[in-house]
Amino acid sequence: MKLALLSDIHSNRQALDACMSHARAQGAERFAWLGDLVGYGADPGYVVRQAMALVADGHCVIGGNHDALAVHPPKPGDRAASTVAAYGAQWTHEQLTPQERAFLAARPLVAEIGGVLLAHASADTPERWPYVDNETAAAQCLDAATRRPGICHVFCGHVHQQTLYQRGTWRGLVCFTPQPGVALPVPPPQQWVATIGSVGQPRDGDPRAMYALLDTDVWLLRFVRVPYDHGAAAAAIRATGAMPDYFAQRLPLGR
Length: 255
Prior knowledge:
By secondary structure, this protein is of the alpha/beta class. It has helices at residues 13-25, 44-56, 65-71, 89-95, 98-105, 135-145, 230-240, 245-249, and strands at residues 2-6, 30-34, 60-62, 110-113, 116-119, 153-156, 162-167, 173-176, 184-185, 191-196, 209-215, 220-226. It has a single domain, classed as Purple Acid Phosphatase, chain A, domain 2, CATH 3.60.21. Helix 3 (65-71) packs across helix 4 and helix 3 packs across helix 5.
């Protein structure tokens, strides 16, 4: 099975369409979206409707922290209201229909597909949205995941960068920065944690959209970068009149 893994779409219609088209051209048979469908970008309704169609067709969509904010945006004066993540949450909430908000609210925080655990943040306390951005956090994530029978690998989003952590016989984890397009062997029973990056908000200095493709028949993993029209995505953000211009400015910078 070729499983396409997408995360942190952030209402970026242009980046999503580019990644989905690319994945289908690569022979993807199943899709898993790892949360943060909305937030920051201009097209939350479009993205959620695509997700709803995927789930209806038997694919997997889990929830992220921005999705939770869109369902229940913080009120003025709330501590959470001053965070960058909360900017535009009320506008996003208003763009979604009650059915679309209900869909986001019903998303699980973790899911399993064929020996692989999927989480937006970490498999360790996923409801607290911890970042898997170093070896210690990756080890905690993997420890939590492998308590489940049959799980060897964990795939996460949330950090907006593509990274691979491998557990060796010494129990520690080694961090790798993968090269886009290079197939990496990840055979069980070896254990791995991967952060698959962001479709709609890359933050590694490269504006191209990110996703990953896992072939479970031969256990090969490829991290992918896809060019898209970030100028159109930025223009759409500005056209909302509600989102901070900063969200548009950073798209061509990959920051």
